[in-house]
Fold each of these.
Amino acid sequence: MNANEIIEIENKHTSGVYAKQTLAIVRGQGASLFDADGVEYLDCSSGHGVANLGHAHPKVAEAIYKQASTLITLFESFPNDKRAELMKKITSLVDGLDRVFLCNSGTESVEAALKFARISTGRKNIIAAMRAFHGRTYGSLSATFNKKYREGFEPLVPGFGHVAYNNIEALDKAVNEETAAVILEVVQGEGGVYPASAEYIQAARRICDERGALLIVDEIQTGFGRTGKMFAIQHFDVTPDMLTCAKSLAGGVPMGAVLIGHAIENLAPGMHGSTFGGNPLSCAAAVAALGVIEEENLPHQAEVKGVYLMGKLKRIESPNIREVRGLGLMIGIEMKQKAAPYIKALQEKKIIALNAGMTVIRLLPPLVISYEQIDHLVEALTEVLNGCVTDERMETGVVNGYGADKRIKADE
Ligand SMILES: *Cc1c(COP(=O)(O)O)cnc(C)c1O
């Protein structure tokens, strides 16, 4: 199939919930993606933070092949060698979180954490943050803030409230004896790349402890080395009660997980579960992926490359930039105008970037991106950020599937 055929078929049969690009991608290697004509693109999106190891990592590919020809599926009631290996490995990553629930996506891990919080505490209420993104199924959508994702889908799940992010006082006022859990991203991703302050995360821990509420951190986007540590919470010396993860966990194969601390009680057989959860194929991919993260020291790579890239971005002199912020290789460039035209201009220069809300260009490159590729990215960005964008491009409202959201206000 050539590019036009691929695009035509998808446009004809798509559900309609994605803003389709005019680019058909058929192959990836490291930080590069290749279209149907063999043209190379530098991937600074990693599939929204999935491809931390780069695309088609040979160790993950080999593990998938081997496991696929051994055993693909097995319900979690039957123990399995690969699942046991993964459970041992993943629960060694954060001190104090030594149980795990395995599922298949980010939103599922959030759903599980929310259910566990209610059953464990016997309380109903969940406090989330303004600008938060936790997923699109009903529980996680109820924790998600932006109207764009929620409107038209009501009624949502009762018991959810939202408070200003990075605001200790607001959290202090909101959490009480009826709060089952506080759920927070350590760096808000979809909401515009806003890192939490250490004080905020530490205060969240203290406030939850004081009132008997649980602290859930959503590390679906920040996990597995992205911010310079295995998990972003590890920058702050805080242990959450539950940690949700997914995206990069299994090197690109669908998988989610909730890491569970000692405070979680009352989890009993039959209460929750997942047909595909903990299947040996995903487990084998995850074991391989976690091995690669360690062998290649990807958290360290993200840290030093993040400092390098951030330094260069901060030196770009453009009247169009409002702020550059982020942690590790999770970086947002907030523009004074819409981000979409800049992202489109980057794509014309064969660089794939993301938006985060209306005005933020978001960079989530694979952590294996080379310094040459980073330099190339900075060069292209410098040209694009200083160039004038045509009026026609300024009208482009939606990029890379998540869409630019008029309703996200910078300081909500
Ligand atoms: C992507 C994301 C989710 C949802 O994950 P899915 O696998 O798309 O369901 C939830 N929370 C955060 C912080 C995310 O970045």
Amino acid sequence: MRERIEMNTKGHMVYAGMDTVDLANQYGTPLFVYDVERIRKNARAFVEGFKALNVKAQVAYASKAFSSVAMLQVAKQEGLSLDVVSEGELFTAIQAGFPMDKVHMHGNNKARHELEMAIKHKIGCIVVDNFHEIELLQELLMEYKQDIDVLLRVTPGIEAHTHDYILTGNEDSKFGFDLTKQAREAYELLKLNPHVHLKGLHCHIGSQIFETDGFLMAIKRLYETLNEWHVRDGFNAEVLNLGGGFGIKYTDEDEPLELSSYVKALVEQVQEEIDHYQLLYPEIWIEPGRAIVGDAAITLYTVGSKKEIPNVRNYVAIDGGMTDNIRPALYQAKYDACVANKITEAPTYQASVAGKCCESGDMLMWDVLLPEVKAGDILAVFSTGAYGYSMSSHYNRFPKAAVVFVEHQQAKLVVKRESYEDLVKNDLSYE
Ligand SMILES: *Cc1c(COP(=O)(O)O)cnc(C)c1O
């Protein structure tokens, strides 16, 4: 993201055409700032990638990456479909006026009330994950005398992580049905239910993936199964959902592919399988989360205390941390950053950026080079748009940050900063 950072005559960092120091002053910190044009650009790269190849597709935004009414409205404007994994995410979609027929529901333990809400609102598709869910669906669809489209979530035995993929015959995962046996059992159970329309298969092989090999192997595996079902009882998948996981750039170590090249690779492999087995061409669905919003936001913080330990490390503390970005603590995620009010100053000071939670693991960055920092400086952390706000917590009773959208050089508050009253609004007295 560094290459997209600009500077103004005050020596301040400019993001999405806005002076970031002004934004911090106006809205306070910690503050998430989304560049809406970037969100649209990412979304269009996928949508137009399919269009250019003349392929029927749905690009479903995985809303767990960042869900808010404004965000889902942008997804709607871009013609995306939407993944939800809970009643709360579905409720947000309803509030955003998202077309329900383009909503897909995921989850490895969907509760009866969640499935009921999905059925009542006539969402487009339920991605069935396990046998318990099949039973719940049978009961509910009878009760509501309603039909629904479903996909079967399967684990093709391929796990992709950034640069590696791991081949496992029988995947150890809490999600979905294995392809060896369970998928067929689930298929037969679903076929017994006249209210269920099985459209095809779904798989999601991992996250922050920088290569296409894992996807291509998954497609091969899925088609081995689909071909078996075709030969046995003439089943033709109308939909093939290949999940999300497309990687983005957090630091210079990351080298993601162009979003459209993932699309091209997937389409070509599906084409190859179709030709090989002589099957009908399915709609291809994908579910990018991170790749839509991840590199479309920065987080602004105010620097406070410093602790310099000679010959060991310099700690610089900011007014947020794991409560607004748990990824470094959770899985050693790396970020890049700059000091927004000192953009012209040379990065000569090695610092580790600490959060303010009572938890030693609450660190945002280790040993990065910054200009000489002092209390009151504004730190801008890059590429924080995915799994930042959406994973934020109230640990230490910090109110959640505010979120601003910027487009056409206009900033708009889209999620208010929480108040202390918000923090105690569900607390009841015991006196
Ligand atoms: C998390 C998830 C996604 C989105 O993953 P990204 O890495 O954010 O693209 C898509 N589909 C499913 C089923 C998921 O669990």
